[in-house]
Structure formats: C-alpha cells, structure tokens
Specification:
By secondary structure, the chain is mainly β. It has no helices and eleven strands. It has strands at 3-7, 10-12, 18-25, 33-39, 46-51, 58-60, 68-73, 78-83, 92-99, 115-116, 120-124. The strands form two sheets. Strands 2, 4, 5, 6, 9, 10 and 11 form a seven-stranded mixed beta sheet that branches. A four-stranded antiparallel beta sheet has the order 1-3-8-7, with no helix packed on it.
Length: 126
C-alpha cells in the first residue's frame, strides 16, 4: 500500500517546539511536492506548509509563517516540519501529503495530492 507515515507529534506547552517527520511507504518521495495540512476539531483541514520537489521552494500558511519551517532531506527521503513557538491554536491532527509540483494557485487544494498519511496528533496546552 502506497502511503505516507507521519511521526513526531505529541503534547507540548505553549511556546515549545516539535518536529514532525513524513516518510514514504511503498514508494519514494522523488520530486513530488510534499505538503503538511492540519485539522482541528470542528474545523476544516487547512494547508500549513509545502515544499517543492524540484527547486525546494516553500510555501506557508499565514497562521504559521515565521514559526514553522518545512525542509526536505533527500538522503533520508523524508520531509520535516519544524514547529517553533507553538500556540494552543496549533492543536490539530497534522497530515502530510504528496502531489505534483506546487503552484501558488493550487498548493492548498487537497485534490491535488495523491498520497496521504494517517496523521499525527499535536496538542499545545499548559
């Protein structure tokens, strides 16, 4: 089964940091664009960050820009999401997804992505 596997979620106090990982199962990330989405209880899923597979260009959602950093380690075939200065409103299930080269108009369109992970829970509270 071709899917992505997320890890690194957990509980952290406000102001803390976590690093999420996204690795493929049954395929390689290659030049896929890789995005992180999140979904909080009672809310729609929203795009968080995305990294290109060709030029490593990045995209960020307005609510996380300046606090989150997406990166890609080619040798490990893994994408990371470094999350700093976490806030309670960052609490959500975080999903990674693989799709085509991202473009500004479609980067947050979930229908663009082929493979998804099962999600990892991030809880920010005191």
């Amino acid at each position: 089964q071709l899917q992505l596997v997320e890890s690194g979620g957990g509980w952290v106090q406000p102001g803390g940091s976590l690093r999420l990982s996204c690795a493929p199962s049954g395929f390689t990330l290659g030049t896929y664009g890789i995005a992180w989405f999140r979904q909080a209880p009672g809310k729609e899923r929203e795009g968080v960050a995305c990294i290109s597979g060709s030029d490593l260009g990045t995209y960020y959602g307005d609510s996380v820009r300046g606090r989150f950093t997406i990166s890609r380690e080619l040798n490990a075939d893994t994408v990371y999401l470094q999350m700093n200065n976490l806030k309670p409103e960052d609490t959500a299930v975080y999903y990674c997804a693989a799709g085509p080269e991202p473009y500004t108009r479609t980067v947050w369109d979930e229908n663009e992505y082929f493979y998804w992970g099962q999600g990892t829970q991030v809880t920010v509270s005191s």
